[in-house]
Specification:
Layout lengths: L1 E5 L4 H16 L3 E7 L3 H5 L4 E5 L24 H20 L5 E4 L4 H11 L5 E3 L20 H31 L6 H10 L4 E3 L16 E3 L15 H8 L5 E3 L9 H15 L3 E4 L12 E4 L4 H4 L5 E4 L3 H10 L3 E3 L6 H11 L13 H13 L1 H14 L4 H10 L3
Parallel strand pairs: 1-2, 1-4, 2-3, 5-6, 6-7, 8-9, 8-11, 9-10, 11-12
Helix pairs in contact: 1-14, 3-5, 4-5, 8-12, 10-13
Length: 411
């Protein structure tokens, strides 16, 4: 079967789909992954065909069909950046689908436009989401903050959020349907039709963090995480291995695709926090260009979290869905510093599990506050015990295998 996986957004929105695609390829399918051009190497290194999307995630949106942006707080209109990204995404997805496919697997970011492609191509589709974006009474929308509005309020807020997403996609969907030769159909009508059909969505996160809401409609499943592809023979760079062996386990610090343009300020803050906490550090540059100097600090670029995190004493991160899961999988305590979008949601889930400190919102970040949480994460055994317990449970979950099983069963 020829399968086209479609993912867009930042690194954390795309990387998990390399592992999912590799699992489907191992099952005998021909798999292509459509993603922003900047991720071409990431995709081809996983053995998948790469179909580039012209939309640039650095100027657009985060994942889950929600405005995430790549800058820090106050960096322009999130909805405006999301709309600009979606405007370019429609044509990119159409170009990526032009070579054909027997099955479309859209992420939450690409699904609102992917539905129109599946209709035009007359092929089945299956949602593969890494965030819980559908309305539920059990928690508020993942991009709307962490304060519950009550069961009715949570569901109402979720419904409002869906209508906002419909509006963001309306123009792009209209142009896409014209290009594909489809009759006019409002974006909201297309979404509601999918819901009436109980369109199937497999959610690639752990029920340990988010159990399947009891009020979700049929067709929505939580299957466990799928992980970014890492070559079996991958080894950490020599300078990283040497640093790790030269002293006690360090603390990882990285903000992924967040805080663009704030690298110099953040680098100084992080270096001071690590010094105050009395720990060594591995600092990942990310899209912020984060750099922290010092005898006990090593700066790194992109390194697979699956190989690096288990060697850490704690992980300071922006609480994106993928990084949160990776820290939990490694069995090390987390220090979540959520910036925007769904990150406060995941930060709160990690803290509730007891595998991370209470979140430190990015807007409140200081060297003193960060150092205090790092000291707690490293020194208090309860955090590591709970993280290790969670890691054992995650090790028994295989979301990619469930997706492959559903695909093999004809969905």
């Amino acid at each position: 079967m020829k399968i086209l996986v479609m993912a867009a957004g930042s690194h954390g929105d795309v990387a998990p789909y390399t592992g999912l695609g590799a699992r489907l390829r191992a099952a005998g399918h021909e798999v292509a992954l459509a993603a922003p051009e900047t991720f071409g190497g990431l995709v081809t290194e996983s053995g998948l065909e790469f179909r580039p999307l012209c939309a640039d995630p650095r100027g657009g949106t985060g994942g889950a069909g929600r405005p995430g942006g790549t800058g820090g707080p106050g960096g322009g209109s999130l909805l405006g950046r999301a709309a600009a990204f979606i405007d370019r995404l429609g044509d990119g997805l159409a170009d990526a689908a032009a070579p054909g496919a027997d099955l479309l697997l859209p992420s939450a970011t690409t699904a609102p436009l992917g539905w129109h492609l599946a209709e035009a191509m007359d092929v089945p589709s299956l949602g593969v989401y890494v965030q819980p974006t559908l309305p539920t009474g059990e928690f508020p929308p993942v991009v709307g903050g962490t304060r519950s509005l009550g069961r009715w309020g949570n569901r109402a807020a979720g419904a409002v959020g869906q209508r906002v997403v419909d509006r963001l996609h309306a123009d792009a969907a209209r142009r896409l349907r014209v290009r594909l030769g489809l009759p006019p159909l409002a974006q909201g009508a297309r979404r509601r039709a999918r819901e009436r059909e109980n369109w199937r969505v497999l959610h690639g996160f752990s029920p340990l963090l988010v159990p399947r809401p009891a009020d979700w409609r049929s067709g929505l499943e939580v299957v466990g995480p799928w992980w970014p592809y890492v070559a079996p023979d991958y080894r950490l760079p020599a300078e990283v291995e040497d640093f790790l062996q030269a002293g006690p386990a360090p603390v990882f610090v990285g903000f992924g695709s967040m805080a663009g343009g704030e690298g110099e300020r953040l680098g100084a803050l992080v270096a001071e926090a690590l010094r105050r906490a009395g720990v060594r550090g591995v600092v990942q540059a990310g899209w912020a260009g984060l750099a922290a100097a010092g005898d006990d600090v090593l700066g790194v670029g992109e390194i697979p979290h699956a190989r690096l995190f288990p060697r850490m004493a704690a992980v300071v991160h922006h609480a994106g869905a993928g990084t949160s899961a990776a820290a939990l999988r490694a069995g090390v305590p987390g220090v979540p510093v959520p910036v925007a979008a769904d990150q406060p949601f995941w930060a709160a889930r990690l803290a509730r599990l007891g595998a991370a400190t209470d979140p430190l919102p990015f807007r409140e970040l200081t060297a003193e506050r960060l150092a205090e949480r790092v000291r707690r994460a490293v020194a208090e055994p309860a955090f590591r015990i709970r993280a290790e317990t969670a890691a054992g449970e995650l090790g028994r979950q295989d979301g990619a295998a469930r997706v492959a099983e559903v695909v093999a069963g004809g969905m």
